[in-house]
Every structure is written in structure tokens, then in C-alpha cells.
């Protein structure tokens, strides 16, 4: 699997581009703030055509560029319980954050909802761009937070340990940490359930591509992540 990762222009959000190979259709995952130019460069370099945009959740730092990336022809996929967030994710920001964004990017923050939105359900299997993607609903950070599981690994992987599959964990699981639950729609109890019932059952040889920060593995997180200690799947 061809997999390219690059950071958005704000909040350190990882944007992912996945494809079966160069010259094929691709999936764009979590197009955050200011990703249009680097994304266009990735698409041109590998001769890729977006078939769908997948959103791990509806927070602004993960969805800000979804409408320009989708254009009028590509659908955005989001869990049904975070669908409402695409109406206007700017509405949940405090004025100070909006002002900071406008100062950084030199323009007023605006929002337009994608023309085509597909609502996702837990354990749904998607066949898109020649890839199989399973939706794992893992609420806690938001009501509709999901992880995307694929039975493939990025090309050229040089990890020292054996790996068998990939999970894009959004803001559910990070290297050494988890997503915060104190924002609107967050729920600490739901996050604990998601960690116990959705994250912990993931096999050790799973590559975890997080919404922020470096990649990790389930083997490493099970052994070292303090938020997983004491939980029993």
C-alpha cells in the first residue's frame, strides 16, 4: 500500500494519503488546515486521484479542508454521530482560536459543507480505491470518533518488529497518550469503554497511524501507554 503522511499547517494534525499504488485512485484521510498545496504535490508526484475523503471525526483541525479537497465530485465519509459537526465546525471554536487562525493565515476563517457526505456505521467495511477499510467506532474524544483498519501495510516499512495490519487511530490513540475528553461531545467514560473494547483487542502486530504525532504499534502501546494499563479487553 502506498501511504504518504504530512502535517497540516496548524495543530500538528496528520493528513494521510493511501492508495493501492502509484497512478491509482486514493483515499485522503483527515485533510486539516492548509493542506491543499502539499496534498496537490503528493497527488501529482504519485499520479493519484482522490476517490474519497475519510474523516476520523468532525473536529475542525481534521476536517477544515474537506470541502475543497472533495470538490463537487468526491464524497466525504464521517460517522453518523459526528455528521452534525460538518454543518459548521467553526461554531464550536472560541473567538480566541478563530482570531489566532486568522492572524496566522491572513484571511478570515470560512466554512462550506461538503456537497456529498456518506454516514459511516460501526464495523462497516468499505471497498474504496482498491483498498478494504473497516470502520471501528470508538467514541470518547467525540461522539462519532472512529478508527480505520486496513489489512495492508505501507510500502517500504522499515520497522524492526513484524507488523501485519494498519489502523488509522485519529484522536482515539496516540503514541503514549490518548485523545482528550474535555471538549464538547467528549466523554471520559465512553473513552475508557472504547479503549477497553475497541483498542485493546487490536492485535500486537498492528501499525498505528495517529491523528497527531508519530506512528506507533499496538505492541508498544499495550506495554507502555499509561492509559491502557489496568484495562482488560
Automatic annotation (TrEMBL):
Q: Which cofactor does it need?
A: Zn(2+)
Q: What's the superkingdom here?
A: Bacteria
Give the Metallo-beta-lactamase domain ranges: 12-212
For this protein, the record's Pfam families field holds:
Lactamase_B (PF00753)
InterPro entries named in the record: MBL_Glyoxalase_II, Metallo-B-lactamas, RibonucZ/Hydroxyglut_hydro
Q: Which UniProt keywords apply?
A: Hydrolase, Metal-binding, Zinc
Q: Which GO terms describe its molecular function?
A: hydrolase activity; metal ion binding
- What is the name of this protein? MBL fold metallo-hydrolase
Instruction: Give the organism, scientific name.
Output: Phycicoccus endophyticus
Q: What does the record give as the organism's lineage?
A: Bacteria, Bacillati, Actinomycetota, Actinomycetes, Micrococcales
